[in-house]
Design goal:
The complex is a heterodimer.
Chain A: H1 2-8, H2 10-18, E1 20-24, H3 28-45, H4 54-59, H5 67-81, H6 85-102, E2 107-110, E3 114-118, E4 142-147, E5 158-160, H7 165-172, H8 179-186, E6 190-192, E7 199-204, E8 209-210, E9 220-229, E10 243-245, H9 250-257
Antiparallel strand pairs in A: 1-7, 2-9, 2-10, 3-9, 4-7, 4-9, 5-6, 5-8
Chain B: E1 2-8, H1 20-33, E2 36-43, H2 52-59, E3 66-69, H3 79-91, E4 95-98, E5 103-105, H4 108-123
Parallel strand pairs in B: 1-2, 1-3, 3-4
Antiparallel strand pairs in B: 4-5
Helix pairs in contact in B: 3-4
The chains are: A alpha+beta, B alpha/beta.
Chain lengths: ~260, ~130
């Protein structure tokens, strides 16, 4: 039975038990294309780095961009790369085989892929502990998180151990707590997801996650993009406004165009 | 700089109501970011399925380079009427912008994408309730 095969897959088991999977990307061509796009964007602002390794350029961007200019720098790159349809399709292609298993093959994709740049010691771009579903996101969505550099220790994100969700739910009953207080209560129940360049993380955004100040010596560059089944329920992030269909199958195409004879 | 006409709703669409001044703020901001010269919005009539003002825009479009709607879901609900009106604008090489969704129709390819989104939206049940 296909259904049984699917449940027995290692990735599916891991996703269900831990809430995430980290996979080696096979479509290296798409991955390299994506990183090169970013390097090209950086060269527009800093053209004198052309002899350096891509990895070093990204890891050391804090030596060239000041924290106060970081958001403008990030938005400039974000706006530019998101105009590129090939960039978006490359992002989908490198995660497609895993999305097929975890989500399905008729998908909507976030229209604009988010970019996160976390410089060492920068406290201005933090995402405190949260689950996207706490702010109205559909629990049918997954996040595809793609690092452009190796991410480890405080340079990466943390993720609550799935078995600790009931503990967090109890903590949340105390509505007077702020996010720092919540984090302190669960800091022994999280894992830091070590992800190398060449790997991709797919996670269930209904499980609490976040980041802290990057205390490593390198800058983190990562992207995140949400995917869900076209016909699964939507939350506050709506079709057309936030999501766009990317893999509508012929039967569904027929279905949406179907009209009764009279 | 491209000269565009704004277009907003005085009724709700897909169960959402956005105050008119907020729709105008979003359109103005979109025009500023995209270097479009914004001309005052026409306000669609409140009566259900009325597209009188949109028809007006199509008729006077020669004065402009395009139209900026607050949302793509303010296009006519009827697939046929929506297609005809958008094609009429495209035939005259005019662009159709959607401020809330940061989208643009400038060719038939984009029109087809928007058409699919519209048809899906009509078939898919309302949002998930936690």
């Amino acid at each position: 039975m296909k259904l049984k095969e699917n449940k027995d897959s290692k990735d599916v088991k891991n996703y269900l038990s831990k809430g995430y999977i980290i996979k080696n990307i096979k479509d290296i061509k798409s991955l390299n294309y994506i990183r090169k796009i970013f390097i090209k964007e950086i060269f527009k602002s800093f053209p004198n780095q052309k002899n350096q390794k891509e990895e070093n350029i990204l890891n050391n961007i804090h030596k060239r961009v000041k924290v106060k200019n970081l958001n403008d720098f990030r938005l400039k790159i974000f706006n530019s790369v998101n105009k590129n349809e090939k960039f978006k399709m490359s992002y989908y292609n490198l995660s497609k085989e895993f999305l097929d298993q975890i989500v399905g093959n008729e998908l909507v994709m976030q229209s604009r892929i988010n970019l996160s740049i976390q410089m060492p010691k920068d406290s201005s771009s933090l995402l405190p502990i949260h689950a996207d579903t706490w702010s109205g996101v559909s629990p049918f969505e997954v996040v595809v998180w793609l690092p452009l550099v190796n991410c480890y220790r405080t340079k990466t994100m943390y993720f609550l151990k799935k078995k600790k969700i009931s503990k967090v739910n109890k903590i949340l009953l105390n509505k007077k707590l702020n996010t720092d207080q919540i984090f302190r209560k669960i800091k022994n129940d999280i894992e830091w997801l070590e992800i190398k360049y060449g790997q991709v993380l797919i996670f269930d955004q209904s499980i609490p996650h976040g980041n802290v100040v990057n205390n490593e010596k390198e800058t983190r560059w990562s992207m995140n993009c949400r995917f869900k089944g076209i016909f699964t329920p939507y939350g506050d992030k709506k079709l057309g406004e936030f999501f766009e269909p990317i893999s509508l199958k012929p039967a569904s195409l027929r279905g949406i165009n179907y009209k009764h004879p009279f | 700089m491209m000269n565009v006409r704004g277009y907003i709703f005085s009724r709700s669409f897909f169960g959402e109501r956005v105050p008119q001044h907020i729709q105008n703020i979003v359109i103005r901001d979109f025009c500023k970011k995209n270097r479009l010269n914004y001309n005052l919005s026409l306000v669609e009539y409140a009566m259900k399925e009325s597209y009188t003002m949109f028809n007006q825009i199509v008729d006077e479009i020669d004065k402009f380079d395009g139209v900026v709607l607050y949302s793509l879901f303010q296009l006519p609900e009827s697939d046929k009427i929506r297609k005809n009106l958008c094609e009429a604008l495209l035939k005259k090489n005019k662009k159709i912008y959607f401020a809330s969704e940061s989208r643009i129709i400038k060719s038939k390819v984009e029109l087809e994408k928007i058409d699919i989104i519209w048809k899906l939206k009509k078939k898919i049940p309302e949002k998930f309730i936690h």
